[in-house]
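Course assignment 3, question 2. Fill in each field.
Student: A.L.
Task: Predict the tertiary structure for the chain below.
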Amino acid sequence: MKRTIQFSILCCLGLAVNSWAMGYSKDYEPCMKSAQSQIKEISACQKHESKVQNKRVKQNYKKKLSNTPSSEKQLVKQIQQDWLKQRDQVCGFEKNKFEQKNTTYTGCFLQLTMARADMLEYGLK
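Answer field:
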């Protein structure tokens, strides 16, 4: 229950942070516009942007960890691991239920990953 509350707070903060943080890459909006509601093209845009945002999460997490006092590093690692698990749960990703190609999962994955990258980046400032 405690972890669910923590994740809910992180998600809400992510939405608030999103208004001033980096957000999508400069290539995402043009890609989505050119997709013209075609599922295959939308999926390709989402997958590419998910990779960009996942890279941001990894980079910002490494910076955060390097700036964290050693007494708090384990907590930061645990929060990141919990976030990864909860992201997959929230988006409904189960190997038997969806494939990563599913646009619903990919869109959810993208939104939560971008919010996490933004939160980590904002925390570095």
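Instructor remarks: Residues 93 and 105 are 7 Å apart (CA to CA). Residues 13-21 have pLDDT under 50 and may be disordered.
Grade: pending
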